[in-house]
Amino acid sequence: MKKQLFCVLCVFSLLLCAACGAPTVGDVGPSQSFFAMDTMMTITLMDGTEDDLTAAVQEVNALDAMLSRFQDGSPLAEVNAAAGSGVLVPVPQEVGEVLTEALSAARRSGGAFDPTIAPVADLWGLSGDTPTVPKDSDLQAVLPLVGYENVLLSDGGMLLSEQGMALDLGGVAKGYAAGKTAEVLKSRGVSSALLNIGGTVTAMGAKRDGSPWAVAVRDPLDEDGYLGLLTLGDGQTVSTSGGYERYFEENGTRYHHILDPKTGYPAEKGLLSATVVSENAALTDAFSTALFVLGEENALALWRESDDFSFILATEDGRVLVTEDLADSFTFWGEQHGYTLETVRR
Ligand code: ADP
Ligand code: MG
Known about the structure:
The protein has 7 helices and 17 strands. By secondary structure, the chain is of the alpha+beta class. Strand 4 (151-154) and strand 5 form a beta hairpin. The radius of gyration is 20 Å and the shape is globular.
């Protein structure tokens, strides 16, 4: 049996292109890379001080501590431990905010994004070093525990209605942290920064020469190739989800980490990756996961009934679909890699 450990190589799907057109050394302010939320982060300030940078890093670490379900005593661990008890668990305001965003994404995506995926994710061993294909009967047994409708959130706290339910905020926490940290920086007077929170990237302001921040979107099939370059306006966030980001192999089959809450298996909807751009960082993160699970047709339908996000989808049959509202900000490079560009309209 061949089993590969999870590809936790931190293969960022978005290459930071601070270097494209480029702040030269000495042209950027304080910058720090650090490990949090199980991945690498880099925060770069254009204006602002070392103290501002420290405050930003502390914000991410504080949110990591609150939102980790594996840290004993963390608010999320307590909510999970109390599942089925009937007793509301009080949580810090931030945890309530993340859950509000997660539940909104779940509702809007018809459950393609579901923060109660934890029991299924655990059967696959997604959070450990030895992921494995679960027995189908075990999967079927825990699937009924997945259901965002059974999460109660009120002023008094949170409650999971069934014993065995658990929250996994891995698909939204990094986005929430990106948005919250940008707010902290803004309140301290920082106007220009780029926050790469584990591949979810938030832009504040523009570069020193006034040109917009830019990120390159990775070719999901070639770690050295790119689908194109995306510029980000002030306050915009971009996030990509794809099956190529974290996966393992068992008996010659590849299994990735984005699960379809309807089946309990890794989502296979004809997409290689889903990239979302919006001004709500938590929504951006959650929707990149959601669109990957929804597939082309349903992703398009969700976009058509919304007005608060844009997307870039890479399909298994070699197309790159870009919503028309990104026409001015996305430069397509994919033809060199055999992709064709399609603009999708409302
Ligand atoms: P990453 O965290 O690698 O950037 P995503 O943002 O797409 O990738 O989130 C994937 C993570 O979200 C998984 O590792 C798992 O913790 C969780 N997850 C997997 N499938 C779903 C889903 N359908 N809905 C909500 N969360 C999910
Ligand atoms: Mg996500």
